[in-house]
Amino acid sequence: MSGRTLSSSTVPPAGHELRSVHDTSPAARRMSHAVRRAVGAVAIALLTAGLAVLGAGPAAAHSVLVSVDPADGAQLSTGPARVTFTFNENLQPSFPSVTVVGPDGNLWSEGQPVVDGPRVSIAVRALGPAGKYTMAYRVTSADGHPVSGTRSFTLTAAGHGTPGPKADAASSSGGGGSGGVPVWVFIVGAVVLFGGGLAFALLGGKTGKKTSKR
Ligand SMILES: [Cu+2]
Hints:
Elements: H1 2-22, H2 26-60, E1 65-69, E2 74-76, E3 82-87, E4 92-101, E5 109-116, E6 119-124, E7 131-140, E8 146-155, H3 167-177, H4 183-213
Parallel strand pairs: 2-8
Antiparallel strand pairs: 1-3, 3-6, 4-7, 5-6, 7-8
The structure holds copper (II) ion.
Region (Disordered): 1-29, 152-174
Subcellular location: Cell envelope
Organism: Nocardia macrotermitis
């Protein structure tokens, strides 16, 4: 009996509620539409934000090295004419650097690196000593960030080529030589300035004390 009364008492209100929803004024209906739209907009915003966060990795990533010729770890009996790094997208042509450094620490690449779409390459001399040659790249990614790395191949039979300059000397003269004032000049300058300021402050303090005493 109680169950029946419960059901009979609950059903009418439900129907009433339903009816009342249908009977709402146009203004109220517009309100609910607006709310639904707002909720939908928020949901879409959250979803796109989530996707953006998820997509941030790949979308904002640097250009990625896809392959190198000769292949990383290759065993070669004769040296390659060029070393070519290929990336997943076109590189920016600014400030590319590609070097091939031999087991003797000498530079075996020569000339300037060439950027061609997704590739950057450099000419290589006839090689010298057998052993590991390190191929290094530093390029400007499509997104403007620099990317760099090294790969290597092994020359199994010594060649008769003549090396370029020492890799260290070449890189330091290229990087620091034109850079101008070395760091130690700034350090000495800072020490002199600081020391001078300190001496002035101390002397000034002493004379101040003396004059105040008198
Ligand atoms: Cu980047």
